[in-house]
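Figure 3 (text version): structure tokens given as input.
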């Protein structure tokens, strides 16, 4: 007999879980409006995210706060409205739509007394009577005070004025209280098969105005029952068998010069308006396009009533246009929330709807839309129940994401591009709920199994670690042990592994093991002392080839360490590696001076005559740089050779090189750049006066400390003595993007080549990009040699024109046309800097510098001389260093290097 499954076992069945999730989603949709709210919000966003533009034929004149403040309290005398209609009619406006509801007569209190005076005077006030003159005055006063007649006269003369009516919507239970007046019924359509919203009562304009209006349409709005947003327009309202058009439909109708016979109802889903076909649902509700405004302005330009009647805005502006007049002032009329706008006036809404009709910009819900949604739901249900449980976590996430994008993106694309609304948010929500629920279920059901599996995996990793340790593969053993949850057994294994690292004198790796153990139990055995000793030993260095060599690390009893010496300098620690070799932090114990020591093990690189030549070149370069004593040039203190290591002791620099300030988001302020480059130019002028050419001026070779505003030029290692007895040509040294045309061509160079490179550096520090860039070395060299200096103001228009002139002179192709010395270059830069200081700083602080997050010790390492290795004999091979050492010094340029 088969065993009956428990409820928990059934839940563990993925297909059952999928079915349950889909059912829960349907119940959620049926019992709450959560998904409906999401659908409406998505519709509001997507339907207003298109490029549709409103009709230019429609203009809005607003009864705004300014108009009420100047004309008077609302409601105004109707002769004020008459004056505007007269002006628009004279300007030949195509159609005038007034959205104010003139539901009651407007009688001036003085009119009653004027008429009583006429009665008292009787026949004597008639022409030929004794009071004829007084009768004329009374007649003029009566005309002036009877503003309804004044407005009616203006509307009659215009012949194109449309007025609104309003209806109480609901299902009639009997016969109407009153038939539609003739002036309200003249533009109605015969009702057909309930294709409209039913109404039980209506309010019409007063007869004196209705009789002369060109048409009367309803101004009803249909708000969403949940959030109150108006998303649809009832094009027809059924008043006891008569289909009353909306004011927007009537406006479009009249502006196209159509008669009632030109309006046809097409089935129960469209209204034919001449050649326009307006799509609706079966209740004549249209989804209009609500246009998005631009740059904070509304979609339709709105002019003030007061500005128009006073002539500030000429009425001729409205010639041949549909002019909509309505209230927008606070407290006058009602505001409506629509997609994309939380508050629009009836006049603005009328403009949106009328434009939608005339431009056929409405949103359509196709008849097959519900079937499409059900089909999408079916696909999602099948995927959730039958496919999703069979997929791995990564594949399931990818497929779910793809389906979600297809559903949501499909609805958005159809709404924004084609004005078609398919409601696919519900299937998308079901998809997400199903994926999240099944993922959670998998985690909860399989967690116990995972724990057991992890325990087995941990023991496997521990045994593998012991095996690898026995084979001497200590790094791989440590990697295995770190995968094992910490406990007494693995702590013992790690302790023995750290001892093995110490036996191999890999103290930094032993330190890493002890730190891993201390994070779990810092009191384990003597781990605190072991960690301190390993850390101390890991910070020492091995000089001259390893233990036992003169100058190497000497271990004393008790674990103390004696720091090695290079010449008279005590080596503190390794800072980094450069092109020549290792860079150490050193100290002169006699005077306490901290220095940077650059070294190279020459005997390991060369032999015989090559060793002699390399040693001679090394010290010649040290002598060349040591001759330069300038506040903006790094100072060389000493040079020597000890323990087969050639070394140069130089000034220990703080700050960072300028490389990080060459990017668009880390640029220095303009005044700082000009000050720094001016000081570099003065330093180069000093070097050139001593017949020394740097040959590799670039941001990586300029150190700058912002706190003290200190600038230092480094790396004169590739400089040459340029007097006639020692100059050599034909050797290309440096970084291509910063090289002068003559340097790239292998010609003889002098200080003007450095000034060209300084101009390139100035351009990059200001613009964040190099002036010349290429995808290959050939393209880059061609541009440097042939293309004119680009105008930096095309990159940063706010920079002064004088900078363009200075850069053009510094980077001109012919050396004789450049600055002839650095002092002239610096003088022009300081003149520009002075000009910036004498006017409001608009450019000087345009860019802000953000310090790099790199370790500070790396930023203090002077750059290694870059040409020493590049000019050594070809058989020399680079020094090999331990992978655990600190990162090498930066190379100095992001472009193509030689």
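Below: residues designed for each position.
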């Amino acid at each position: 007999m088969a065993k009956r499954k428990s409820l928990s076992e059934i839940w563990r069945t993925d297909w059952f879980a999928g079915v349950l999730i889909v059912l829960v989603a349907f119940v959620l949709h049926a019992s709450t409006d959560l998904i409906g709210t999401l659908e409406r919000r998505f519709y509001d966003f997507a339907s207003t995210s298109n490029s549709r533009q409103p009709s230019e034929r429609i203009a809005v004149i607003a009864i705004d706060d300014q108009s009420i403040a100047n004309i008077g309290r609302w409601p105004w005398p109707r002769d004020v409205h008459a004056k505007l209609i007269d002006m628009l009619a004279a300007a030949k406006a195509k159609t005038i739509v007034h959205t104010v509801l003139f539901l009651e007569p407007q009688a001036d209190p003085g009119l009653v007394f004027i008429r009583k005076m006429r009665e008292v005077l009787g026949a004597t006030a008639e022409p030929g009577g004794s009071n004829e003159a007084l009768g004329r005055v009374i007649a003029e006063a009566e005309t002036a005070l009877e503003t309804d007649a004044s407005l009616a006269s203006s509307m009659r003369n215009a012949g194109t004025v449309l007025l609104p009516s309003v209806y109480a919507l609901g299902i009639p239970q009997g016969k109407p209280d009153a038939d539609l007046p003739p002036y309200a019924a003249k533009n109605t359509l015969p009702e057909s098969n309930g294709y409209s919203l039913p109404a039980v009562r209506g309010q019409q304009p007063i007869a004196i105005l209705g009789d002369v209006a060109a048409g009367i349409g309803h101004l009803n709005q249909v708000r969403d029952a949940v959030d109150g947003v108006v998303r649809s327009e009832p094009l027809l309202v059924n008043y006891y068998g008569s289909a009353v058009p909306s004011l927007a439909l009537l406006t479009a109708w009249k502006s196209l010069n159509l008669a009632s016979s030109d309006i046809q109802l097409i089935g129960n889903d469209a209204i034919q308006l001449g050649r326009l076909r307006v799509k609706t649902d079966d209740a004549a509700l249209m989804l209009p396009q609500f246009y998005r405004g631009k740059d904070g302005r509304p979609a339709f330009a709105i002019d003030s009533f007061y500005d128009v009647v006073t002539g500030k805005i000429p009425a001729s502006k409205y010639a041949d246009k549909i002019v909509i007049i309505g209230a927008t002032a606070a407290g006058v009329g009602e505001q409506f929330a629509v997609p994309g706008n939380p508050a629009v006036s009836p006049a603005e809404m009328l403009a949106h709807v009328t434009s939608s009709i005339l431009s056929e910009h409405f949103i359509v819900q196709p008849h097959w839309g519900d079937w499409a949604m059900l089909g999408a739901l079916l696909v999602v249900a099948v995927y959730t129940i039958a496919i999703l449980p069979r997929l791995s976590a990564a594949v399931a996430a990818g497929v779910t994401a793809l389906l979600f994008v297809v559903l949501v993106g499909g609805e958005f694309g159809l709404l924004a591009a084609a004005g078609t609304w398919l409601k696919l948010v519900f299937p998308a929500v079901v998809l997400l709920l199903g994926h999240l629920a099944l993922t959670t279920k998998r985690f909860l059901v399989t967690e116990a199994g995972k724990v057991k599996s992890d325990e087995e995996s941990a023991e496997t990793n521990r045994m593998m670690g012991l095996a690898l340790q026995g084979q001497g593969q200590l790094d791989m053993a440590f990697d295995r042990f770190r995968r094992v949850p910490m406990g007494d057994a693995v702590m013992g294994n790690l302790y023995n592994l750290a001892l093995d690292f110490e036996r191999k004198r890999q103290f930094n790796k032993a330190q890493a093991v002890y730190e891993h153990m201390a994070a779990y139990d810092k009191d384990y055995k003597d781990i605190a002392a072991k960690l301190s000793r390993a850390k101390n030993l890991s910070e020492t260095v091995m000089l001259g080839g390893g233990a036992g060599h003169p100058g190497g690390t000497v271990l004393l009893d008790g674990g103390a360490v004696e720091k090695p010496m290079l010449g008279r300098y005590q080596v503190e620690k390794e800072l980094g590696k450069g092109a020549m070799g290792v860079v150490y932090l050193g100290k002169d114990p006699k005077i306490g001076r901290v220095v940077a020591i650059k070294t190279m093990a020459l005997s390991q690189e060369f032999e015989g005559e090559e060793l002699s030549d390399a040693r001679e070149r090394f010290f010649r370069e040290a002598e060349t740089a040591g001759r330069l004593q300038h506040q903006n040039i790094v100072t060389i203190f000493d040079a020597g050779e000890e323990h087969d290591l050639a070394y140069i002791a130089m000034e220990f620099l703080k700050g960072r090189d300028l490389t990080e300030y060459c990017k668009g988001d880390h640029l220095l302020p303009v005044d700082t750049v000009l000050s720094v480059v001016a000081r570099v130019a003065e330093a180069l002028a000093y070097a050139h006066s001593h017949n020394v050419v740097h040959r590799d001026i670039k941001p990586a070779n300029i150190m700058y400390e912002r706190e003290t505003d200190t600038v230092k030029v480094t790396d004169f290692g590739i400089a040459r003595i340029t007097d006639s007895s020692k100059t050599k040509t034909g050797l290309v040294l440096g970084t291509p993007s910063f090289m002068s045309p003559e340097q790239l061509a292998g010609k003889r160079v002098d200080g003007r080549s450095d000034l060209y490179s300084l101009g390139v550096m100035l351009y990059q520090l200001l613009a964040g990009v190099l002036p010349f860039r290429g995808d290959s070395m050939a393209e880059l060299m061609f541009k440097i040699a042939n293309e004119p200096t680009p105008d930096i103001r095309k990159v940063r228009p706010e920079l002064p024109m004088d900078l363009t002139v200075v850069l053009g002179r510094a980077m001109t192709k012919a050396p004789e046309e450049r600055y002839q010395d650095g002092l002239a270059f610096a003088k022009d830069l300081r003149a520009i800097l002075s000009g910036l200081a004498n006017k409001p700083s608009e450019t000087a602080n345009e860019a802000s510098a953000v310090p790099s997050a790199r370790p500070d010790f790396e930023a203090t390492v002077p750059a290694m001389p870059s040409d020493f290795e590049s000019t050594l004999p070809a058989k020399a091979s680079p020094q090999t260093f331990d992978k655990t050492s600190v990162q090498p010094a930066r190379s100095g340029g992001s472009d193509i290097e030689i």
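The two ends are 83 Å apart (CA to CA).
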